[in-house]
Amino acid sequence: MTVAVVLLAIALVGALAMCVTLLRRVARAEVAVAAAVSAAEEARSVDPDDSLPRLVAALDALSLGVVVADVDEVLGFRNRSAEEILSSRDSRTIIDRAVRELLVEAVRGEPGEREIDLFGPPRRTFLIRAVPLAGASGMAVGGGSVAVIEDVTERRRTDQVRRDFVSNISHELKTPVGALGLLAETIDDETDPATVRRFTERMGVEVTRLSRTIDDLLELSRIEFADDLFIDDSPIGAIVEEVLARFRGSADLRGVELRAMGELDVVVAGDRRQITSAISNLVDNAVKYSPDGAEVTVSVTCTADAVSVTVADTGDGIPARDLDRVFERFYRVDRARSRDTGGTGLGLAIVRHIAHNHGGEVSVRSREGHGTEFTLTLPVAPKRPPLNDRSNDESEVTA
Hints:
disordered C terminus, Heat Shock Protein 90, 53% helix, five-stranded mixed β-sheet, five-stranded antiparallel β-sheet, alpha+beta, disordered N terminus, 11 helices, 12 strands, extended
C-alpha cells in the first residue's frame, strides 16, 4: 500500500512539472501571436502611397529570407536576410540553385518546399518554400512567385533534444519504478528479517534516486523560465566557501582535496541561490569523477566587467566527441559510471540555464586522461559608493 502511494505521488509530481512547463510555453506563444496580429492590423491601416517602401522595410526586418521572381522567371527582389543567406560561401551554390528551381516551378503553378542540410562547420539546416503569386486578373498563376528561406537549424536541434528528452526521462523514471515494483513483490513473499531489511534499504535507494531526478527536473523547469530570478550583489568568495563546505565530507571520504583560490573578494550581480546551485553542480561533478586522492580546485578570476569561476579536476577527462553535448539534458559521457555515482544527467543543463539567465556563459575544456575544467562566467556587480556617500548623492538628486 505504502509503495503504491509513493509511486502515485511521484508520477503526479512529474506530470505536474511537465504540465506547468507546457502551460508557460503556450502563454508565451499567445503573446507572440498577439503581437503579430497587432502588427498586421497596423500594416493594413497604412496609406497606400507609403505601402511599397514600408513593405520593403518590413521584409528587410524579417529574419526569414524572401526572394521574388517575376512571371518570366527572373529573380527581381531579395530582402536583406536572403542576401545574407545567399551570399554565404557555404550556401551560395546549393541554396541558390534550390531557390531558383522552386521559384520556376511555382511560377508554373506548382508550389513546393525543400529542406537542405549544410554540413559546415557549423552545420545548418534551411527550409525553402515557394508558392505562385496571383496575377492581375486574380488567377492563381501569372503574377510570378515568391520563396521563403528559413533557418530551421535550432528547430531541428530542439526537436532532437525533445525526442532525446522523452526517451531519457522514460528510461530514468521506468528503471527505479520497475526496481521498486520488483522489490515490493519480493518482500511480500519474504520472511527473513535480514533479507526484508536489505530489500527495504534498496527501495530507499531507488526512491532517493527517483526523487533526485524529479527534483532536478522541477529545478530545471523553474530556472529555464527565470520566474523568480532575484538579482543582487552576491559575494563570490562566500558562495564558493559555502559550496566547498557542503561537499567536503564526501570528498574527505575518498581523499579528494578541495581548494579555493584567486580573487575571492569580488562581487557578482546575480541570484545568489542560482549561482550557488550552478557552482554546486560543477563541484559535485568534479568530486564524483575524480580518482581517490585527487585535487579539485575552484579558482576565481576577474576582469573589468566579468567574473569567471573555474572548477578543475584531475579525473579521466571528457572525449572530444562528447564536449558539444555535455550540457544537454540527461546526456552522460559514461552512463554506467554516472549510474554508480548517482548522477541524474541534469546538473550541467541546470548550470547552462543559470548562466544564460544572468547574461553569462559556461564553457568546458578537457583532454582525456588530463582532467576537465568548467568555467562559469558572470557579470561583475556595479561598484556602489559607501552608504554615507550614497545618502549624500540621493540628497543632491532630490534637492
